[in-house]
Amino acid sequence: MRFLVLDRPNDDTLPAGLERAFALDGAIGYADADTPVLHAPAAPLIIFGQLFRANERKHEFTSGEADAIVTSRGAWLMRHCWGRYVAVWREPATGRLCAARDPSGAILALYRSESSGTAIASEPSTLADAGMPMRIDTTGLAHRLWYPGIASHQTALDGLVEILPGETAVFGPAPVHHSIWTPAAAIASAGLPTHDNLRETVFQTTNLLVDNRPVLVELSGGLDSSILAAALTESRADWRAATIVTPGKDGDERHYARLVATAHAARLEERHVAPDAVDLLMPPARLTLRPTGYGMLAALDRTMLTEAERDDRILLSGTGGDNVFGSLRSAAPVVDAAIASGASCWHTLRDVSRLTGASLSKVALSAARYALRHRLHPIRWRADGSLLMPGTRPPLAPHPWLTKARLQPGQRAHIALLLRGHDVIADIERARRRTMIFPFLAQPVIELCLRIPSWEWVAGGRDRAFARDAFRGHLPAPVYSRRTKGRLASLLAPAFDDQRAQLRALLCEGVLAELGLLDRPALEAACRYEAGSDGRIYTRILELADAELWARAVRSAP
């Protein structure tokens, strides 16, 4: 999906492939052939992507609906509709251009606003192809390295600003961002969902997003991807599955994937990926707002894309399930339970103890500390300064979802998981090259799950307990009770050991070092050791190598 909106169009610099044009009262929106577009020129309004109202796909607007979207600055759209979309319109009263991004974060929305006009796009490479220069924003890059997992308006590209999920940006002399949809509002909604509510919402949402297209499910045999397999079977969709197999047991999930495929009489392809297929020095395939971990995941991207392209299928992923289904492994739910019911939080204390393996006394002490920290410093995000120069740490740019309302610790921790989920899907290159659906991050699913109290997710000492119970009748018993997760260590660690010398040279003589971001002595020392000596350090080196390759790609962009 690719689009571009230019407030002051110039056809001489229009990127190739954006052959469809839509008038927008002085501005023009362009889209490629694969991007669904709803156009209401009288409003004037353009929506790029899939849009639904309740259980129906929207293919057009009434004049009243289009006017309501424009006059409410997108609030009507996010209150009455959902989907995978970015909306752009012109305000009749002020003449200002506006853009809104749906709460799922499935489609990126970014802009550059200057005195010469505003450009809104789905990816930086589109703006680069339109002749706009790309330069590294050192502070934005430092923020990404110090605070991984959280997006902010500031990006690592100078002059490019991200519209965050659930926001409307209003462009004028100084662009202003408005949080139209927030998790806090969803949490405050009345009514406690039931297991039936969750199951019906996931099944229905998945079916609508798939929209009768042939599907390839990325099936690990874990809870989340297995739920999606059940949803497709329920809707009688045309689907088959593929699972990735790595050399070690940590990434070999064939046993569980086969159980799920057999339960649904589905075809399963098992695709092996070896360490020699992982090129950790591979430059990014295209320009992105921030470093994304491309080199570590490129082999998986190629494998799944090849499999989907064999018979022209969209990709369906359970990514985001951990995040939406409240996979919390802290004492935060104990604090929430104590606030809600006092002494009866004992049950949650016991559940967290069973889930984490920590003693009851340790969990109780952790809960007390958690409550105190939350009261004194409610907005926190763990910084990672490993292998970075201490003086390069920028202030944390708090996300509006964490700052706009009073929240309990478990609620805030759940929202932080959602932010990490958005960050993960932004890293998946195959989602940029082929339609890829993430049903668990869809607005109806998020809104329902946010209303479930945090202690329900850890009930019985099980992670994602509410979801497990909601889908129990649709899962093979070993999958329902599974506690392990697939890892990539047996794939990445040997690749790191083989390419360690090149990675050291790449980083010590690269752009990040030149910008003063890297602690070179610490990095040189860390690169002397093989991956098995410290798993945290070698993965950090891989993150920094990816950032270095990204920075070099920006420097070499036309």
Automatic annotation (TrEMBL):
EC number, UniProt record: 6.3.5.4
Q: What's the protein here called?
A: asparagine synthase (glutamine-hydrolyzing)
Q: Which reaction does it catalyse?
A: L-aspartate + L-glutamine + ATP + H2O = L-asparagine + L-glutamate + AMP + diphosphate + H(+)
On the tree of life, the source organism's domain of life is Bacteria
Associated pathway: Amino-acid biosynthesis; L-asparagine biosynthesis; L-asparagine from L-aspartate (L-Gln route): step 1/1
Per UniProt, residues of the Asparagine synthetase domain are 208-551
Cite the Pfam families for this sequence.
Asn_synthase
Annotated SUPFAM superfamilies = Adenine nucleotide alpha hydrolases-like, N-terminal nucleophile aminohydrolases (Ntn hydrolases)
The record's listing under InterPro entries reads: Asn_synthase (IPR001962), ASN_synthetase/amidase (IPR051786), Ntn_hydrolases_N (IPR029055), Rossmann-like_a/b/a_fold (IPR014729)
